[in-house]
Amino acid sequence: MVMGAYVSYGTGHHAASWRHPSSDTTATRNLDHYVEVARYAEERLFDTLFLSDAPAVFNDDQAGFGGRVTFFEPLTLLSALAMVTEHIGLVATSSTTYKEPYNLAREYASLDIISRGRAAWNLVTTSKLAAARNLGLPAHPAHAERYERANEFIDIVCRLWDTWEDDAFPADKAEGQFYDPAKRHRLRHRGRVFSLDAELNVSRPPQGYPLIVQAGSSEAGRELAARTAEMVFTAQPDMESAVAFAQDLDRRASRHPRLNPDIIILPGLTVYAGRTEKEAREKVEELQALIRPEFGLSMLSDLVGGYDLSGCDIEGPLPQLPPSNANTSRRALIEKLAYEDGLNIRQLYERMTTSRGHMTLIGTYDFVTDEIVRWFENGAADGFNIMPPLLPESLRDFSENILPRLQHKGVFKQKYRPGTLREKLGLRRPENQYVTETVTTDERGQHHDHAR
Amino acid sequence: MVMGAYVSYGTGHHAASWRHPSSDTTATRNLDHYVEVARYAEERLFDTLFLSDAPAVFNDDQAGFGGRVTFFEPLTLLSALAMVTEHIGLVATSSTTYKEPYNLAREYASLDIISRGRAAWNLVTTSKLAAARNLGLPAHPAHAERYERANEFIDIVCRLWDTWEDDAFPADKAEGQFYDPAKRHRLRHRGRVFSLDAELNVSRPPQGYPLIVQAGSSEAGRELAARTAEMVFTAQPDMESAVAFAQDLDRRASRHPRLNPDIIILPGLTVYAGRTEKEAREKVEELQALIRPEFGLSMLSDLVGGYDLSGCDIEGPLPQLPPSNANTSRRALIEKLAYEDGLNIRQLYERMTTSRGHMTLIGTYDFVTDEIVRWFENGAADGFNIMPPLLPESLRDFSENILPRLQHKGVFKQKYRPGTLREKLGLRRPENQYVTETVTTDERGQHHDHAR
């Protein structure tokens, strides 16, 4: 079972966690906080440390009630954390909509070298409308357009990581030959979105390619994941939908030639657990009591795609929403909860502040352990991205009480395997595409030019 | 006297340094090498660690003779090195032509937080023609166009660093108010190059703004530096031209309202020194003997802007070069050496392989020390960016033999000052422009909109 520690929001995943007496309100800009969390997650054998990202202020609450606003840029933060950890995988999120393939390929290759093969790229197309304003685009590109770009983008990035073969640098001092020109490859790409002739200026990453992670759940997102992702992070509210999601993704994946046939599926999971159910409930209520209604409305507005709900009665129903170009799957979930299940606005934001649409388990340590095992054994998940409501407290609670139970049941490891993140997860290392192609280039035509 | 350690090229600044018996040929992709160099430079009280950069393969020698090819992405590498150092400034180069202001502002703000106020941005417009091909631009933009973009770019980036006032986060747990909306500022920028409405998602950097460094020597480059730079890195072949450059820059700077009136000018300096002059000469010759002519030609081709010289006789003169859109000041220097001083092609590339146009001092430790003091006392330099021909060897040689002599003469410090890089260098911290403007906004018109 694969376990990720989702630590994007400094004080924890619950939207009001910063108000908790134990919280360090400077956490999102406090390096020491992240060093402590990263070291602890490694000590407890988490497989990955996960940072979400968007080029915009988070939870765009204009009134100042929300505690998740500014944060570290993830590639720089994970490069720093690579120096205080040895085993844990480092997952940085980056947007294909708001970065350039060349710059992104460099950054992840560099992080992979710095971390000795522990880098992972969570590919997103970004659902924040403010990102377009921040970057100076006329508008946030439409969903289909974002995914068209993402599809070309990832192919370019993988090719860029192949620019230099693994053994391209004999560095023969006597002969004066540093690299072997036959092992240097230029990508000639002419696509609908990108047109470039590019050679990366970073050597091939230790993992070949950093691990490819994705989080999109739309039709286009699933297709992209089926073709290219090795790990998928997903929001699933219950086991049935998680099983359906996993089966759908497996079916799609089987239609593509894949180096690693199985996709590691990690639903997000928020846990409130205690020795008794009452103790667990108290942990929820303690945090829920800290939500100001103004903030709940503001957060919900953001989650449905920037539609302003601030004038609405929180005890009333969610109004019919105009079309939006933002995250469609999270919005669809909120609409389902509102229009089919009949949750009012307050109930909707309370649901969202605890979990943002991810599964939430509330109960005794034994109950939570059993639920996790049940999901795992029923093919709903290969593991979980744990979203601690309160950091570091809930991470410690989970690690000290749930993980040992999972180890006892034999579903969670007792120590790290050696090697890179791919090796630890049992994933194959990608071969260089220029090398594997040389025998078949003539048949397949000169789609990519092997210059020189 | 300010001392920088220029460590971009893993095995050292001499183009054939990788062939030296002492060299680690994996240095440009070896984190341990950089950790050792960074720690050593700090132990020896260097003020800054300097990484040059371009989004392209370095020294674009297609035949494989040159050892400077792939390298770390600088922001990720310096974030890692921030964790193993405490005092040394971390200068990362980034291009205004091939990055977006929002992404760049985030990365440097994040590095400044990670390093507790030691980040510096060396702004370049990039002179490598391959960068355009790598990023998919139709052509490398013209010099004037690059500088027009750079001028707007830096103003945007500084404003983005001001998005959140230093005390924007009261984080009042009792009231549930995390930030003060009056201390959050949106930049509304409508320029010739950029048009955006942006708010940074990183808190204000510890230094206010990371230190602004520049390296352009053209007319447009000097004007940009005079208006915005706090430190200038420059290639000056002799003291007279360095004095003229410094005077010109001071004159230009005096015409601009500047927070820190004086620009810290650091010429690049390559030193070959020994107990005797003979010993120093041997150190040069040992490295010069390692240059293959094919590589010398290839490197020179690259330095004059991508014009292919591979068919030329190395004992003959430099042919008349067609116009180029690449680094104009380095090319002008090469043309001067060729057409006015009569250097043939071999002499040109030998000059360039040792120094790339920067000052080179060859002689006894005492001679070199005296020359450094002479430059310093004659207003040619506020210090130097030391470009060790061989790493770490030449850095050790300089640190053990020249630095103590400079300390003895009272021109180099005995220990670091406390505080951020700005504080160590005696530079003022920039105030937030939104704060200083509030009194005068009406008079100056609504150039920047304080939207919220």
UniProtKB/TrEMBL annotation, chains A, B:
Residues 15-291 form the Luciferase-like domain. SUPFAM superfamilies: Bacterial luciferase-like (SSF51679). InterPro entries: Diverse_substr_monoxygenases, Luciferase-like_dom, Luciferase-like_sf, NTA_MOA. Keywords: Flavoprotein, FMN, Monooxygenase, Oxidoreductase. Pfam families: Bac_luciferase. It comes from the Bacteria. Belongs to the NtaA/SnaA/DszA monooxygenase family. This is LLM class flavin-dependent oxidoreductase. It comes from Streptomyces thermoviolaceus subsp. thermoviolaceus.
